[in-house]
Design a protein that fits this description.
Blueprint lengths: L6 H28 L11 H18 L4 E7 L2 H8 L1 H18 L6 E4 L4 E6 L4 H17 L4 E7 L11 H53 L2
Helix pairs in contact: 2-6, 3-4, 4-5
């Protein structure tokens, strides 16, 4: 029979209780982490995106700091799924997410996936001009790695004076920011398609030219 004043027994029970608490806390931390993560790509999900945007609004109100959002849409995902299947499409999404995390500023920018092939990078304390550097890096790296994507940017200060921000007004401005970034992203996508069509047409004309010259060479032999 264990007596209540057995110190060794009490210490063992307390130690075991603390150990179980630590295990449960680690489980809760993992759950909290993955509750804001996209399960496929590992970047933030829509919930994480909303949390980050709210934090940026708080900083605008508190410190009058500007911030930017960049909306990115993958140009080749549908074709990848249709031609190579959805497993290949999933791998394509993972590679795109890795690329975006590589170009984003570590510890500052937040990369999130909020749609099938749509991502957002939230850039706290960043002006439009500095945000454009990220768009340039996205264009450069997507071309190098052959992961076609289109990006559009918008800043808070484009749509409101930082000194005039308040909670209700800021939420409306977030909608305007998303719309402006979306429009710029689609403008880039349209430009990419026009460039690809022109390149394809040029390749066709070049092929026709070579075929014609070859035919002439054969005819004169």
């Amino acid at each position: 029979m264990v007596r209540l004043y057995d110190k060794d027994y009490i210490i063992r029970r307390q130690t075991e209780y603390i150990r179980r608490l630590e295990i449960e806390n680690r489980k809760l931390e993992r759950l909290a982490k993955w509750s804001v993560r996209d399960t496929l790509t590992g970047v933030g999900n829509r919930r994480r995106m909303d949390m980050a945007l709210h934090s940026c609004i708080v900083e605008v109100q508190r410190r009058k700091q500007d911030f930017c959002i960049v909306i990115i849409d993958l140009d080749g995902l549908r074709e990848m799924n249709n031609v190579h299947g959805h497993h290949a499409g999933d791998q394509y999404l993972k590679k795109a997410a890795d690329l975006l995390q590589d170009v984003a500023r570590e510890g500052e920018d937040i990369v999130c996936r909020f749609g099938g092939d749509e991502f957002m990078i939230i850039m706290p304390n960043t002006s439009y001009e500095h945000g454009m550097h990220l768009v340039s890096r996205i264009n450069e790296q997507s071309a190098i790695h052959n992961i076609p994507m289109s990006a559009g940017i918008s800043s808070f200060s484009e749509h409101s004076q930082l000194s005039e921000s308040n909670d209700a007004r800021s939420k409306g401005i977030i909608k305007k920011m998303k719309k402006a970034a979306d429009m710029r992203m689609y403008a880039m996508k349209k430009a990419h398609k026009a460039h690809a069509a022109k390149a394809h047409e040029g390749a066709g004309n070049e092929k026709h030219h070579h075929v014609g010259r070859a035919a002439q060479h054969v005819a004169h032999r």
